[in-house]
Structure formats: structure tokens, C-alpha cells
């Protein structure tokens, strides 16, 4: 067991290191001259002298040989230093930390919506005897994943804010301004939850213990909620990482649509201004969330389900 | 007996990503060669023209999707046929007109006809998405087939890279590449491609592995055929079906990703009527002119829905599960 835990943690660290390398390659090697790339995104276009450029390259260490740059960046990153924002001069970790809370709030609310809605659809669709209702419910998720997220958000604003005036379109006044963004972010994820959970419920419902429990006189609803759902949830836990990643990526769109401060808005600003250190910080944060979510599930699953074999695993 | 695989970075909805899976999933995209119900419904014995027409009529959703896609393709290749006007010049006296007989989709703040702009934006949006899918298909396909065909440490190395790419949310990966490369349609296409290379590599690997393990490949090898003959004659043709079905599905997803990136303002520069930018332009007039966001978004949604419908029909499944 200890060996399993150590192995999993090491694997996760390995993937994280590789993710760092990928972002480093994308952001610092592909542009050729990151300093000009960063300045091109800034406000003073072309107003920087050649000497100043050289100075900046020196300051950021871009004149060093590539392996040395990579090593020094990696060493700093291990110590939690992801560099400083080109635009604001703030350390990247501070910039990310400052806007984390609103995005976590938004994601948590969206997650609740996604679980309730997606879980509800999957449960009703697999419980009902009516083929018509099942087909109709299972037809919703493929449609929901085909809709552009930004469009869903704008439609919600149009109906709920402009026509009916129920919820504010933007701003930051507590729970009321959280409803529409959370709904926008949660809807596509609820489709994901519904699809995976329905599939796994359908499979679990075929297991022989269902017949046995029914034969013992327990009602179909109790079997469905108490036994089938429990068994079906465990395999669906594999998508926790995917959901976490989707929440983070979706917040980029949702926070733009609703003009909410947060990690997504920071990302859009950083990309627009080509603030490469901040972009790297956000992308890495996304990878950390995904890897950590998977790691937690991997570590907790053997506790929740003794049937899970410990040996078979890959990052 | 009941062995639940330890969870991992697997995308759950993708079939057959690991050939050693204990219980093969009811594959979404896997076409079993020679399976009778490839079209989803039982095939009528009379395969004549009449039977074919009837089969289409029995699936109105698919028919509707095909017709709509035909319209979209017309808009992409010959926008003048559907909308003879100029998408860039407007009549300011006609600004912000609601949809009606004169302007089907209404007009924007400069009096430009929105329908004309959507039609003329089709080729731009679809081309960007198409480039993205082609790049992802070719690069992902090469890496995936190499991994499945060669096996050993090459397989290991490629799949570890794929795992890492899957560990970063694809939108963030695309955004990183855009901030490195700069804005514009081509860069958006490359960025979207990077986001889906890993998916293609996975399915290409699993498919080529499946073919490589089959008895006819073993037979062909034992007859002494060279490796490139095996690859060309057996592996590629048999692996191509599911990979191409995935490509159609990913084309729909690429349209969504491209429109999201152009909505954020990273696509073709402003006056270009890219679908996502149209929605983003309309955002400023949402209270007064809701159609400016609703209708272009509806076109995106309808296109992606139709493509998905078609992809599932091609994949030999009526629905996702």
C-alpha cells in the first residue's frame, strides 16, 4: 500500500514536471525572442530602444544558453517562484493567488449545479420504464456539449437580466450575481456527468446483485439509489480530474462573458498582453489542479472500494 | 472478477484507449467490420434506391443535419450564392434593424446585414477549424500509429507525452500557444490543433494496436511481408475508419474551440466576420439588439450539432451511449 502511494505521488510529480517542460517549450522557445513578443503585446509598441531590449533580455536571462535558462527557471519554479508579471511587476504566484477565490466560488457553485443536474438526468433516465422519457433525457447531453459556452451565457443574460430582470448581468453583489455564471459553467459539465454516470449506471444495473436484492423484497427505487448508484459512482470518479480541468478552462470564457474578476479574466488579460510568465503560471495551475484531482481520487479509491487493484496504474 | 481499473488521466468517453482493458467498452466510434447494423438500424434486404430513401426518411434528424451541412458547405465555398451582398459595407440609416424580410438576421450597429456576414464568415470559421483538425489528425495519427505499430520504448515515450498533453486543459494549452505565436486565424488553428493532438494519438494508437494483434496481420507477417507493406496494406486501412469518425467529431469540437477563441478576440482581426467575433461584436448591443448575439450563436450550435449527428452515424452508433 505504501509502495502504491509513493508510486502514485512520484508519477504525479513526474507528470507535473513534464507539464512544466511543455509550457516552457511553448512559451519560451517557440516565440524565438520572448522579450519582443511580450513587448509587442504591451502598450508602447515599438517605442523600446535596442539597448533597452538587450537589457531586458539580460534581466530575464534570455541571453543564457537554453538548457541553463530551463534549469534556472525550473529550479525557481520548484521553490514556488514562477517569475514576475511583465505588465504589473507582481510575482506570478501572487497574481494567481489574488484572483483565485472568486474562481473557486464560481467553480464550486457550477460543480453543484453540474452534479445535481447531470446526476438527476442520469438517475431518472436509467430508472424510468418509459422508453420515451429515457430517450428524451439521454438526448439532452449530446446537444448540451454542442452549444458554445459563451452563447449559453449570453442567452441567459438576455433572458434573465434584460427581459425578466431576475438576475444581474454582471457585477459582484453576492449570491445573486453568481447564479447565471455558475449555470453557464455548470451546464456543459452536467452533460459530461450525465453521460458518464448514465453509462455506468446502465452497466451496474445489469449486475446480478440487483436481481438478488430485488428478490429479497427491496423496492426498485431503494436498489437504484442505495446499491446501483453507489457501485456506479466509483468508476465515474475517474472523471473528477477532467471536470476540474473543464471548470478551470470554462471559467476563462464565463468570466469574460460576465465580466467577473477571477483566474479566467487574468488569463485573458495575460494572453491579450502576451504576459508570458502569467500565462505559464495559469496553465501550470490548470495542470496542477488536474493532476492533484486525479491523484486524490487514485489515493482514495482503494479505501472506498477494496476491489480496486493497486498494481495497474498509469499517469 | 470485477476489476475496476485504477483511475488515471483517461478521458472517459473515448473508447478502446487501452487495449488491455478488462471489459471493452461499448465503443462509441469503433466500427466492427461486417457488423450488420452499421447505420444504427437494421438494414433492409432491398438495398435499392427506394430502400435507401426510406432509410433516410426514417431518420429525420440525420436528414435534417445533412441538409443543413449542405447549406453550410455552400456558404463556405460559394457565399455569393446564398448572400449576394457585401459583408463589410453597411447602410448606417439601416443600423440595428431587427430580423425581418429585408434583413433575415437583422443588421448590426453599422447597418451591415448580419445574415450576409454570417454566410461570408462561414468559410473563415470552417477553414480554421478544418486546418486545426487536419494538423491534429496528421500529427496525432503519425505519433499514435508509430506508438501502436512499433511498440516498446517508443510507444512508452510517445504515450507519456500524450498523457502530459491531456493533463493540461486543452483551452489553456491553446491559449499558451496563442500567447507565444500571436493572434490570427492560422495561429488559432495551430493552437486548437495542439489541444486535440493527444486525443488523435490515443485513438490512432489503440486502433493500430488492435489491427497489429489480429490474426491476419500475424499471417501476413509470417508470409514474410515487409513492415511497410503491413503498415500500408493492413494497419492503415483498418485503423482509418474509427480515426476518421473521430476526426468528424473533432471537427465539430474544433468549430466550438475556434469560435470561443475568436470570441475572446484572438482570431482574425476585427472586420472579418468570423462566427465567434460576430457574437462578441453583438455583445455590446445585447439589450437593444439581442439577435446580434443569438443568431450567429445559433448558427454555430446548429452546425456543431449537425456535425456531431453525422459523426455518430458514421461511427456506426445511433447515439453516444
Automatic annotation (TrEMBL), chain B:
Ranges for region Disordered: 1-53
Signal peptide: none
Record Pfam families: BPD_transp_1 (PF00528)
Transmembrane segments: 62-82, 129-154, 161-182, 188-204, 243-268, 288-311
Domain spans labelled ABC transmembrane type-1: 122-311
Membrane-related topology note: Multi-pass membrane protein
Alphabetical UniProt keywords: Cell membrane, Membrane, Transmembrane, Transmembrane helix, Transport
Major localization listed first in the record, in broad terms: membrane
SUPFAM superfamilies, per database record: MetI-like
Subcellular location: Cell membrane
Biased composition annotated in UniProt, kind: Basic and acidic residues: 35-44
Similarity annotation: Belongs to the binding-protein-dependent transport system permease family.
Name of the protein in question: ABC transporter permease
Organism: Nesterenkonia flava
Amino acid at each position: 500500500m505504501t509502495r502504491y502511494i509513493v508510486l502514485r505521488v512520484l508519477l504525479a510529480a513526474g507528470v507535473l514536471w513534464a507539464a512544466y517542460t511543455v509550457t516552457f517549450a511553448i512559451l519560451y522557445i517557440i516565440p524565438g525572442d520572448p522579450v519582443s513578443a511580450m513587448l509587442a503585446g504591451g502598450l508602447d509598441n515599438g517605442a523600446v530602444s535596442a539597448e533597452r531590449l538587450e537589457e531586458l533580455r539580460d534581466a530575464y536571462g534570455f541571453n543564457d544558453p537554453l538548457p541553463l535558462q530551463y534549469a534556472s527557471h525550473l529550479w525557481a519554479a520548484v521553490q514556488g517562484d514562477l517569475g514576475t508579471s511583465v505588465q504589473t511587476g507582481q510575482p506570478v504566484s501572487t497574481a494567481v493567488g489574488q484572483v483565485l477565490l472568486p474562481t473557486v466560488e464560481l467553480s464550486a457553485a457550477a460543480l453543484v449545479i453540474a452534479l445535481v443536474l447531470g446526476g438527476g438526468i442520469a438517475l431518472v433516465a436509467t430508472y424510468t420504464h418509459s422508453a420515451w422519457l429515457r430517450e428524451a433525457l439521454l438526448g439532452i447531453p449530446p446537444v448540451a456539449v454542442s452549444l458554445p459556452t459563451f452563447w449559453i451565457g449570453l442567452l441567459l443574460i438576455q433572458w434573465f437580466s434584460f427581459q425578466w430582470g431576475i438576475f444581474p448581468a454582471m457585477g459582484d453583489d453576492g449570491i445573486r450575481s453568481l447564479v447565471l455564471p455558475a449555470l453557464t459553467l455548470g451546464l456543459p459539465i452536467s452533460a459530461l456527468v450525465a453521460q458518464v454516470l448514465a453509462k455506468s449506471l446502465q452497466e451496474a444495473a445489469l449486475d446480478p446483485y440487483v436481481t438478488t436484492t430485488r428478490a429479497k423484497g427491496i423496492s426498485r427505487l431503494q436498489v437504484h439509489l442505495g446499491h446501483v448508484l453507489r457501485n456506479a459512482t466509483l468508476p465515474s470518479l475517474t472523471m473528477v480530474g477532467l471536470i476540474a480541468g473543464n471548470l478551470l478552462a470554462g471559467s476563462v470564457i464565463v468570466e469574460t462573458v460576465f465580466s467577473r474578476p477571477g483566474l479566467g479574466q487574468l488569463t485573458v488579460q495575460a494572453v491579450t498582453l502576451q504576459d508570458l510568465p502569467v500565462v505559464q503560471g495559469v496553465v501550470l495551475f490548470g495542470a496542477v489542479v488536474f493532476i492533484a484531482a486525479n491523484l486524490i481520487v487514485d489515493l482514495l479509491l482503494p479505501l472506498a472500494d477494496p476491489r480496486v487493484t493497486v498494481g495497474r496504474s498509469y499517469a | 472478477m470485477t476489476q475496476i481499473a485504477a483511475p488515471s488521466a483517461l478521458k472517459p468517453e473515448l473508447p478502446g484507449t487501452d487495449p488491455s482493458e478488462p471489459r471493452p467498452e461499448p465503443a462509441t466510434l469503433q466500427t466492427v467490420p461486417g457488423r450488420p447494423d452499421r447505420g444504427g438500424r437494421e438494414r433492409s434486404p432491398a438495398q435499392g434506391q427506394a430502400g435507401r430513401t426510406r432509410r433516410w426518411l426514417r431518420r429525420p434528424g440525420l436528414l435534417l443535419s445533412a441538409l443543413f451541412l449542405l447549406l453550410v458547405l455552400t456558404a463556405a465555398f460559394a457565399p455569393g450564392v446564398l448572400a449576394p451582398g457585401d459583408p463589410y459595407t453597411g447602410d448606417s440609416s439601416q443600423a440595428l434593424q431587427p430580423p425581418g424580410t429585408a434583413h433575415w438576421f437583422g443588421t448590426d450597429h453599422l447597418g451591415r446585414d448580419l445574415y450576409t456576414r454570417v454566410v461570408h464568415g462561414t468559410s473563415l470559421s470552417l477553414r480554421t477549424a478544418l486546418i486545426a483538425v487536419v494538423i491534429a489528425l496528421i500529427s496525432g495519427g503519425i505519433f499514435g500509429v508509430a506508438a501502436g505499430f512499433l511498440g516498446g520504448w517508443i510507444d512508452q515515450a510517445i504515450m507519456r507525452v500524450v498523457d502530459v498533453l491531456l493533463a493540461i486543459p486543452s483551452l489553456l494549452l491553446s491559449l499558451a500557444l496563442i500567447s507565444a505565436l500571436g493572434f490570427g486565424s492560422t495561429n488559432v488553428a495551430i493552437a486548437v490543433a495542439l489541444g486535440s493532438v493527444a486525443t488523435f494519438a490515443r485513438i490512432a494508437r489503440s486502433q493500430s494496436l488492435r489491427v497489429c494483434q489480429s490474426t491476419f496481420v500475424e499471417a501476413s507477417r509470417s508470409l514474410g511481408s515487409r513492415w511497410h507493406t503491413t503498415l500500408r496494406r493492413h494497419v492503415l486501412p483498418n485503423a482509418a475508419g474509427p480515426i476518421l469518425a473521430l476526426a468528424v467529431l473533432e471537427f465539430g469540437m474544433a468549430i466550438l474551440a475556434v469560435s470561443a477563441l475568436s470570441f475572446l478576440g484572438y482570431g482574425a482581426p476585427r472586420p472579418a466576420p468570423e462566427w465567434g467575433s460576430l457574437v462578441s461584436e453583438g455583445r455590446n448591443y445585447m439589450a437593444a439588439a439581442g439577435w446580434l448575439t443569438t443568431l450567429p450563436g445559433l448558427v454555430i450550435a446548429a452546425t456543431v450539432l449537425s456535425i456531431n449527428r453525422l459523426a455518430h452515424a458514421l461511427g456506426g452508433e445511433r447515439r453516444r451511449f
